[in-house]
Specification:
CATH class of the largest domain: Alpha Beta
Mean pLDDT: 88
CATH topology of the largest domain: Polyamine Oxidase, Chain A, domain 2
Number of helices: 13
Helix content: 25-40%
Largest sheet: 7 strands, mixed
Oligomer: single chain
Number of domains: 3
Distance between the termini: 36 Å
Radius of gyration: 22 Å
Strand content: 15-25%
Structural class: alpha/beta
Length: 429
Amino acid sequence: MSTLSPVDYHIGMNESESSLPVVVIGAGLAGLSCARTLVSHDVDVLVVEASNRVGGRLGSRRVNGVSCELGFQVSMSNYTSLESLVPRQELPRHAFVSGAVVVEQSGRCPIIDPRRAPLSAFAPWWRGLVGIRDVIGVARCRSFARKPRQRHLGQSTEELMAELGFSERFKESFLRPFFGGVLLDEGLSAPAVRFLSAFDRFAHGAAELPDGGMQSLADAMARPLAARVRLNQTVESIQSNQVTLRDGTQLAARAVVLALPRPEALRLLGRREEPTQEAWHGTMSVHLLADSILPVGRLIYLNGRGCGRLNLVCCPSLVAPGIAPEGTTSIHASLRPGLFPELSKHDPERFIREIREEAGSILGVSCDGWAHVTTTVVPHALPRRTFDPQLEELPEGVVVAGDWFSTPSIESAVQSGINAGIELAIDSR
């Protein structure tokens, strides 16, 4: 949870418009990066956030000394926009081993980037998980990721994978669990361009965790804003130069930035809200704690068995410090996308016991003594669709930011906020 607290902010009614702040609604990554950009251009800013922490969809909860991510989340070493606002010298990041361990009925097989661990590349060949058609498919995918073709704009991920000619085993044991987990879409119905963007990120970068868990990224981004952030403040309505909070407080504004999920932005614009369950992919994770250091390394373990409840298992505390108490190991068990609504009907104790056993089986270690820390359910984890950034008839002085304009990711959210901040800074001159 963020250590930032709500602060009082008063605006004199006789102030000139040029001395008023830009009011940013939403302290997710888009809102925070917008505010940071405005401040860097000497534009006053106020950020109001309805929840009790910064970060939006990115974040974690600390439970009994364990950082529990809100769904499986990683940063990437090639997130350059994020790096510009939260440099790793300020907040160190630590990489997973590039690749994953595929767990099939027949055993475990590491698929490691051969450019980073050449000898590890032979294992998938020896075990028949990767064949020549898969190598060719990956090479073509790299080419498409650099420059998507026009036909990919209307394709699904499943259709693109068929075009690339991957073998059924490689697709079902590695591609579906890995990218189904990244996209939160086990059916691979997500737009092909979204898959290509994710593929390109993983092909040229490493998945990372910061010291203390993912909430640390949001806290570090918000820290320079300090008293400019007000938490626990829900916005009731907006006008071009005024924001009204639910408690009746009115904030005069030079401009207003809606750094919110699309349904919430539409509500404040007085437009019809979409059915949220149809608009979002959800995710569910079970967080466990072992009382010893598990010998499983900085790897992501994929469930390639084609059955079971889990999509992947990893141990975040083996990757970055400050995630779990010393001498213990945190285990993040992420469920297969789309399962969590049905699982809420199961007996809780039995459910946790079965998840613990499955996670131990995937990691290949005993789960004896593992404690259940918490279970996180995130119904609105990723928007299903990408939307046109040009919302018609925006009121004068209102700007919209968010990663739902492009491929949803940490980097997209940050870049969207930076773009909005630059636009407003130019207009303020």
